[in-house]
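Researcher: If only I could read backbone structure tokens as easily as an amino acid sequence. Walk me, if you will, through where the backbone shape changes along the chain. I have put the entry right below:
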Amino acid sequence: MPVCLFSNRSESVGNPPSEPGVPVVVRVKGTSVSLDWTAPDGNGGLRIIGYIIKYGVAGSTADQYDTQEVKQATTTYRLSGKLQAKTSYRFAVAAKNKAGEGPFSDYSEPIRTNTGNYLRFKSDMQICCYDRNVRLR
């Protein structure tokens, strides 16, 4: 006699995504860095649900790098509150889907953070000091 088994449990069939593009630092403001990268060519048959950013001091070994999870499928992210001033960093990204995490991209070129304080000259030559909620006129 044939036996039929049914399951209402949905299982995802797929593989982790392929490697995304190398992240590019598009802005450095103090110790915050804005990154852009391209999505991987292959999503492993499942939609991308997020990314992992790996970052560390340029010249240190990869096992000394930290990670930041991006819980969206966006290919841009602002890393803030994690970096030290006047320090060079490198970045890599990996895509995630329900099957797992794919391989990391190659590392970006090193980028140096600033002190967190900077001066900007306005067209009327007023000096404004930012990053400490102080404004001089």
